[in-house]
Design goal:
Elements lengths: L16 H4 L6 H11 L9 H7 L4 H14 L2 E3 L2 E2 L5 E2 L2 E3 L6 H8 L41 H16 L7 H16 L4 H9 L9 H11 L16 E2 L7 E2 L9 H9 L5 H19 L8
Antiparallel strand pairs: 1-4, 2-3, 5-6
Helix pairs in contact: 2-4, 6-7, 6-8, 7-9
């Protein structure tokens, strides 16, 4: 497959690949989301008007809207003013937002995107940055933790949070919790282990995703991996009288029992005494055969 793309000089939008390749968003949901994100910040076009302009029918629009709400790309509220009139403010974003993040955007408490988590590995979901539609900028603004394990820990947490909306974490939370998750990985835990520990038995409503994540990371931290040990020496047959097989600690040729028995036995000097006597007799015999020389 050959691909040829000419970067547009103007009138373009920067879109995360996560949206284009999202496994749970229909083509209508993706088109509706991209249409809204392509509008200037000053535009106040309601979602249903975008659907009409995009040629999306009512039933398909309702399904697409429901998917965007479920995945966190769209948030809406019902409000009643002092005169009794109802309105439905909406926030749409190019990244999934938690309810608290969406409220902060709605109320103007977020003026710029929050710091993003480190660049994800291939196949991992991208971490979130809060905002409706970021301005066109050049270069990479990702923040990379200095330690490789922290980077892997942030990627693992982002993957868990992507699959469990109750544990959605901001970029700041990811950076603060990344060393703890990295320690899990250092101790041999897998992404499945981390996901099970963080998501099992969650309450229906999580008021502090970062707090409960930190608590579980610290409380359920696995034990350190055991230190590797040297390979044991091979078995060998004892050269002592028992002849049984044993495993030497270093390079012993006899088993422990045979070494102890040899050390406890009295030292037998009969053989050495006999050898000494035979040697002395040989010396005497040699001297008797030597001619006697009388000095002059």
């Amino acid at each position: 497959m050959h691909r040829h793309a000419i970067p547009p000089a103007r009138f373009f939008s920067q879109v995360p690949n996560e949206i284009i390749r999202h496994p749970r968003l229909s083509s209508d949901a993706v088109r509706l989301l991209l249409w809204q994100l392509s509008l200037p910040d000053s535009a106040s076009e309601p979602l249903y008007e975008s659907a009409q302009r995009a040629g999306i029918k009512k039933a398909a629009f309702n399904r697409a809207k429901g998917q965007l709400l479920t995945e966190g790309y769209l948030h809406e509220w019902r409000r009643q003013d002092g005169s009794g009139r109802w309105s439905r403010p909406q926030v749409i974003s190019n990244v999934p937002l938690t309810a608290d993040e969406a409220i902060a955007v709605r109320d103007g408490h977020v003026r710029e995107p929050l710091p993003t988590a480190p660049k994800p590995a291939v196949g991992e979901p991208s971490p979130r940055a809060v905002g409706r539609s970021p301005e066109n900028t050049e270069g990479n603004t990702s923040h990379h933790p200095s330690h490789p394990l922290s980077e892997r820990g942030a990627q693992a947490l982002a993957a868990v949070a992507h699959g469990e909306r109750r544990l959605r974490l901001s970029g700041r939370d990811l950076r603060q919790l990344a060393p703890l998750a990295g320690e899990w990985l250092l101790r041999g835990a897998t992404l499945a282990d981390l996901r099970e520990a963080l998501t099992s038995g969650l309450p229906e409503r999580v008021h502090s995703p970062a707090g409960i994540t930190r608590n579980r990371l610290e409380r359920k931290m696995p034990d350190p991996a055991p230190e590797p040990t040297a390979a044991p020496n091979p078995l060998r047959a004892c050269s002592g009288p028992c002849g049984r097989v044993f495993r030497p600690a270093v390079d012993e040729e006899r088993c422990r029992d045979c070494r102890r028995a040899a050390a406890a036995a009295p030292y037998d000097t009969s053989a050495s005494v006999a050898a000494t006597r035979r040697g002395m007799a040989a010396v005497r015999e040699a001297l008797s055969l030597t001619p006697h020389i009388t000095p002059t």
